[in-house]
Amino acid sequence: MLPNAIMCAILLNGLVPYTRARHVHHKPLHKHVHRAEPPSPTFTSTIAGEAQPSDLQAFQGQVDDLTKYILSSIADIERRLRDLEKVLASLQGTPLTSSTTTDQALPSLDSTPVTSAYAQSTVSASVTTTTTPALPIATSYGNRTAYTFHPDAKDNVAVYYGQSAKTTAGGLAALCRNQNVDIVVLAFVNDFFSVNGYPTINFGPACDPPTDDQKATAPGLLHCPRLASQIKVCQHLGKPVLVSLGGYIANTSFTSNAQAKEFAGTLWNLFGAGNETTAIRPFGPDVVVDGFDIDNENHNTTFYNTFATALRTHMSQDKSKRYYITAAPQCPIPDESIPLQLMRQADFVWVQFYNNPSCNLNSTGFEASFKAWSKLLANGAGKHKPRLYIGGGAADPAGSGYVAGQELRRHTNLVKNLRVKNLGGMMLWDGSMGIQNVDKHGHGYLHYAKAAVQLKQSPFATTLPTSIRPRVSCDKLPTRPSNDMLRYIV
Questions:
Q1: By its UniProt entry, which Pfam families does this protein fall under (predicted)?
Q2: Contacts (Cβ under 8 Å, ≥6 apart) of 8
Q3: 352-367, pLDDT tens digit by residue?
Q4: Of 297, 336, 367, 407, which is the active-site residue?
C-alpha cells in the first residue's frame, strides 16, 4: 500500500480538471487563456452530506468509476516505481551530473512530465525498442536517466529541424539532449532530380558548401560534418534522426515506377547504409540516418507507393538497426499529395493540424478530423499499424492553428477522450522554435508538448466537480506535492 501522503497527492492532483505544414509559416495568432470555473455549491453540499437521496443516486455511477480510476492510478505508479528501481539498478556507479537540458521542469505535478525512461501505462508490454545504444540523459532533477526510444509509445514528441528562422548550427544536438524530444527530422531534401539525377538538399546553417567531389558529381548536395557529429550525438542518446523529403516549395515528382525505385536507391546510398556513393555523402561514410520522412506537398501522388516500397526493401537488407518511414499529410481528407496506401505502411503519420483552418488544432473541426484520420489509418493497415501524431506549430510564426503551451493539454485531452488505439504523440514545426518559445514563467514549449501527450487524462476532467473527493485526511498537505514527493511518484 502506498503511503498516505502519496495517496493524497494523487487525489489532489489527479482529479482536478486540466485547464485548458504546410511548412511555411508567417501568420501570428492571439493566445487565449481559459480560467477554470469554481466548483458548484450544490456539489459541495452533496459531498458534505446535505443532499437528497436522488442527488446521491445521480452521482453513484461516477463514484463507482472514481474508485476504478484511483485503483488504476495506484497501479500505474507502482509500475513506474518498479521501472525506476530497474533504471537505478542499471545506473549503479554512474556519477550524478547537473542538468544540461534547455527546458526547465515545472514544480507542479500537473505540469511535470514523466521522463521517457518510465513506460507510460498506455504503452503495450510488448513494445519494440530501437537497438541504438543509449546514453544517460540529464534530467531536470540533476540525475542521469537512461533513455530508450519506444516506437509504439503514445507520448513521443517529434520535431523538425533546419528550416526555421530560429535554427542554429548547434541546435540539433541541443534538441536531442532535451528530455522532451524523442525524434528529430532534418528538413529538407527539396529537389529529387537535380544535376546528374542527384538531389538538392538544404538542412540549415550547420552545412557547408559542397566538396570538390560533390561539385563534380552532385552540386546540389552539401558538406555537413558539423551536422554529422550532432547526428551521432542524437543516435548515441537513442533518439532516431530522419531525413525529410519535400516541403512546401519543392520538386518531388516521379515520372515512372523505375524512376521512383532509382531515387529510393539514391537516398539509400547518400544517407542510408548503401555504399555506392561514399565520396559524396553529405554526412560522411560513417553516419547512417534512421529513416525517411515523406512530406510531399505537390498535389501529385503518382508512383509514391512504389517509392516507399523500394525504400522498405533497402531498409530490410540492413539488420543492424530498425529504420522508419514517416509521412506528414495535411489534415483535410483525403490528402492530395501522399497516397493513403503509403501512409498505412508507414511507421508514424504526423498530420499537419495547422495552416488548414477547417481542421487546425485550435478549430472546432480538430477532434472530428483526428478521429477520422485514426479510423482511416487503422482500416486496411495490414501488418503495419502506423502511429498517428498530432502535428502542431511550436510558435506563433509557424502559422494558423498555433496553440499556446499552457493550452495544449486542453486540446490533446480531446484526443485522449476518443481513446484511439493508434495515438503516437505530437509532432512540432519546429524544434528550434519550440526551444526558444519560453513563456513568462520560464517554461519552454517542448516541455508543455511532452506534458500534454504524456499525462493520463482523468475520465472526470469535464464532468466531475473538483469538490468530489474521497474522504482521505489531507489537511496537512500542501496543494501540490513537494519536489521530493514528485521524485518518488514519477
A1: Glyco_hydro_18
A2: 472, 473, 474, 477
A3: 999 999 999 999 999 9
A4: 297
